[in-house]
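Self-study notes.
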Amino acid sequence: MQESNSLNSFGRLMTSLEGTSLTLKEKELISNKHIGGIILFSKNFESQSQIQSLCLDVKSIKQNIIIAVDQEGGRVQRFKNEFTVLPSMQDLGDYAIKKNNLRICHEIGWLMASELAASGIDISFAPVLDVDRETSSIIGNRAFSNDPKLLVQLAGNFINGMNEAGMQATGKHFPGHGGIFEDSHISEPLDARSYEQLFELDLKPFTELKDNLGAMMTAHITFPNIDSVCVSYSSLWIKEILRERLAFEGIVFSDDLSMKGAGGYSMGEKAIKSIEAGCDMVLVCNDYDGTMDVVDAFEKNNIQNSSKIIALQNSADIDWIELVKKDRVKDIKNLIKEMGRV
């Protein structure tokens, strides 16, 4: 199966790799027309130069591909060693408010995105826009704040910093994962709140920051008082609420379909449900058989590639060696050290 001839045509499946270099099987997989993205994890990382080489190898096979990572900061940071160890967004938010200096969020967003861009990464799935402090077992300190107004200000600065580095931001997990304890990686969470309740709290950051985001990622949560299926399979949530009511024009990703919260269907069925509900790209992580099931399902169902996804390719030309010499970078690193002592 060859890649489409269209210069802007991207496959609609993002998958993962096994190790720190490409296998022959993975090279063949990347060539498949339905693969439009690769997400990297800690298992794929040894050093900055190695990750840059891996990204170059992926893009030597296919230019029309997005390379992504979860480099949020705090407990969700896949690349370390030469990369700056970033604070959690809650610690960052608390510090920015204490110092009355929201610009700190801009600077850390810029540094995170600059380091990734200099290494060949197109997007970090960040920032978390969930409203939380300690309600959720999986969000918690990944969230900037449990005050939606503050969160919008803090995350807005972080997003602007990412954008300055040439990287589009991805808001997650739409419409909000912070209101329930359950972790959608290991359960199928239900949130019984009404749309009005969500609109007053969890939806505010997505609503107010939508024009600053290149993408949003859906939550594997069912809101039974709004729709009977989880958000990732809900055309009500994606097409009606996100696209029509909120007028969001960017890319919509499903969260990882390998997660328990995505339900008990086959991987191919999950992917088709997500695409039909309005997702532009689906994620299948750490599951080669599941990835191939989706490829087969996309082929059988004649799922067409997308020209929208090109908007997420990183536009920056940043040299790692020059980046680490910058006074601005040194100043931000010193700020992070100070933050850790407060």
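Second protein, same conventions, sequence then structure:
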Amino acid sequence: MLSVVNEDGTTQSGSLMDDIVREGARRMLAAALEAEVNQYIAELAGERDEAGRRLVVRNGHHRERTVVTAAGPMAVKAPRVNDKRVDGETGERKRFSSKILTPWCRKSPKISEVLPLLYLHGLSSGDFVPAMEQFLGSAAGLSPATVTRLTKQWSDDHAAFQDRDLSGADYVYVWADGVHPKVRLGQARSCVLVLMGVRTDGRKELIALAEGLRESAESWADLLRDCRRRGMRDPELVVGDGAMGLWRALAEVFPQARHQRCWVHKTRNVINALPRSAEPGAKKALQEIYNAEDRAHAEKAVKDFGRAYGAKWPKAVKKITDDVDELLAFYGFPAEHWVHLRTTNPIESTFSTVKLRTKVTRGAGSPAAALAMVFKLAESAQARWRAITAPYLVALVRNGARFGRGVLVEREQEAAA
């Protein structure tokens, strides 16, 4: 029921608009819960006892509870089901469990996504209550003790994520990068080592996230060995920057994987070796390489780049010519995937949108807690990742299909016949 409106258009709990939104959301949630129960009972209407009485029926409502959502706190009375069926194997009574509102739910997942972001912006657990009160119109269910329990849960979630079985997840493409969120880690030079992959159905997925040294072969090898131990097989292609530690570790742990150097990092390195006056032309020349219509044209563009800049700036040209095979590896895969495979942008874009705080305050906690919060932010972002273009081609790549000029070879031969 809506609150009484004051002369200035506000109500006891905030603005009239906010009250209307919360009330509408509350009614929609109540209707959804009722529909869910009605469907459950209707599907089991044929389940009856020896006397012909239904075994699954309505049984009033549960006690009212407050659930914190993005629309604010809501008082909810979930419908209750009396399920008299017995599991034939365990002998236990079967129970209805709502997929919309789980039995112990007190806050929506979206609220849990907001909390680590606030934490990383510098808010301590004691600061959450007034901050979220401004956002939600109430601080119901968000005591400092609740937030402390959440941060402990983040660490547990990260530990479980890093120990999960990978044998059922086949990652065909993998991006690898070391990112530097400004939170307190174990060492001054530490970063967060990130592995992200593409499964055979084209979906992107976070594979691993751990602390390490970006340039250290041993840090990367530890992470890759752990993934191998948990069942990960060799990817077809790994995309990363020029950190030599990664490539040495890959050669040891996943020797079958091909290597692709990130063109964003490489372009930056080349430009840094040139005077400012040469930068515009060099950038355009580099684009001619990685935007070429096929590998043959890309190799010609590499030679053109060498002729144009080699006499005056040989070090800049050498950065391309020394790594030409790794820079052009993506041309051996489907043309639809090239835009995804020539840079580590999937990782870069995920972490660039998270504006992590620059000062370590009392809210930062231990290095393990900081790493767990970065994990929760990446996990939240993962829900919004889009599948790779032409996902059906990923399985063909894994099965050994060959591509010439970005086109499946068999199809190209059929067209020429």
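Instructor comment on the second fold: The longest strand covers residues 171-179.
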